[in-house]
Each structure stands twice: as structure tokens, then as C-alpha cells.
Design brief:
The chain is built from six helices and no strands. It has about 120 residues and is mainly alpha-helical. It has one domain (about 5-110). Helix 4 (about 50-55) runs parallel beside helix 6 (about 90-105) and helix 5 (about 65-85) packs antiparallel against helix 6. The model is unreliable at about 105-115 (pLDDT under 50). It binds zinc ion. Zinc ion (ZN) binds near residues 24, 31, 33, 36 and 40. InterPro entries: Putative_zinc-finger_domain, Red1. It comes from Terfezia boudieri ATCC MYA-4762. This is Putative zinc-finger domain-containing protein. One of its GO terms (cellular component) is nucleus.
């Protein structure tokens, strides 16, 4: 399984590398100081829906043809999952990742989902 993988992946897109994380939140607390200028988890968190939209909106391919066929395939995949009533987040996210890797037939271009080695 990709424990926390999808979410940490998307978190990382929103993290501002120039900002420190709020010490209260790092130590497990919740910062209620509205003037605090540090980075907070609530600012970088995405909902499951937002993550899926982001995954689905990534355009892949080096040419217009490739991008079109990627998009068509992705649309088919999503339609298919809907018709099979698959809406659990982990499954949908994993299927999209699988689609990406099979589209390129190149595992080196698959987004790394797990943390650490
Ligand atoms: Zn704070």
C-alpha cells in the first residue's frame, strides 16, 4: 500500500521551501495565532477530491497526438471506474498512476509515491 503516499506527494507540491513550518504544528499542536507567518499543515493540505483533480489534470506526452491520446485514455479509465462504482480514493489514485506508467511503458517516469527508501 502507499501509506500516506498520495497525500504526501500532493502536500509536497504546495510546500513553500522558503518558509519554516510552524513549531506548534510540528510538535503536534494547533496554531491559532492568525498573525503567525510560518507554514501550517492546513495551508498545504488538499482534499481527496482536489488530489484526484490534480492527478487527472496532468497532461502527459511530448506531442499533441500523445497528449490527446493520454487524455482520451484517462477519460475512458475514469468513466470505466465510475461505471464500476469505484470511488474509493486509494483505488482511483492507484489506477491513475498505473495508467500513467503503462501509457509510457516506462516505470522511470512514474511519480514516486512512497516516502523514503
Ligand atoms: Zn503558527
Amino acid at each position: 500500500m502507499v501509506e500516506g503516499g498520495w497525500r504526501s506527494l500532493t502536500f509536497s507540491n504546495r510546500i513553500d521551501p522558503d518558509k519554516f513550518f510552524c513549531v506548534y504544528e510540528i510538535s503536534g499542536g494547533k496554531c491559532n495565532d492568525t498573525s503567525c507567518e510560518r507554514q501550517h499543515f492546513r495551508q498545504i493540505a488538499l482534499s481527496d477530491d482536489e488530489i484526484l483533480v490534480e492527478l487527472g489534470s496532468v497532461m502527459e506526452g511530448d506531442t499533441d497526438d500523445a497528449r490527446n491520446s493520454y487524455r482520451d485514455g484517462l477519460r475512458e479509465l475514469i468513466t470505466d471506474m465510475r461505471s464500476r462504482k469505484i470511488n474509493d480514493f486509494e483505488t482511483v489514485a492507484a489506477e491513475i498512476s498505473l495508467y500513467r506508467s503503462s501509457f509510457f511503458n516506462d516505470t522511470s517516469r512514474v511519480v514516486r509515491l512512497t516516502k523514503g527508501p
